[in-house]
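pinned: reference chain
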Amino acid sequence: MIHRNGFAAVLTAGVVILSTVCAALADDGHTTKKNWPKCPVMGEPANLAMSATTDDGPVFVCCKGCIKKINTDPAEYAKEIAEHRKALAAMPKVQVTCPVSGEPVDEKTYVEHAGEKVHFCCNGCSKKFQENPSKYHRGLANSYTYQTKCPVMGETINPVAVATMPTGEKVYFCCKGCDKKFMKDPAKFASKLEDQGYRLNVKKIIEAIKGS
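pinned: its structure tokens
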């Protein structure tokens, strides 16, 4: 028989375990909104489908107006950009483009660099990179996407399975069949992108598709 104090202890332990499990399930590869990267200009949650390209990688913003401000005077937002990059460093990402050519990477073609695998589109680009890695620093820094899951199937994305939206954003999928499903009904799958920080203007996308 479990006494009252013993029962309370068991119940408390159960709550702690349950809380731990729930926290682990919540940490499924997506950053929580509490830790979401902030737009360096406005301080609002950044849209990971919208960014300014810099030598040290993308800086994600909340609107197109902020892209112009970052490009015009990045030094003004240096502190905020540093915090922004710290938040990004904690997020999962997938390399999708070759740092040399900008083409989709071949996952079988890679070299070890600074303790990580760097992928390329071909062996020729791999050789160029190894001859002078610093030359391709900007290309490498901007070769990743933080959209790591297919919005249709929920599987890890394939760098070659990509579709450019009528509004300009690139969306990645696990296979080329999924891009067709997405384009048939963007609204159905948009929430799966929002869960990863990618906010699309679905209304404009649908209007563009109907008008094409």
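why pinned: The chain has eight helices and eight strands. The chain has three domains: 33-89, 97-142, 158-211.
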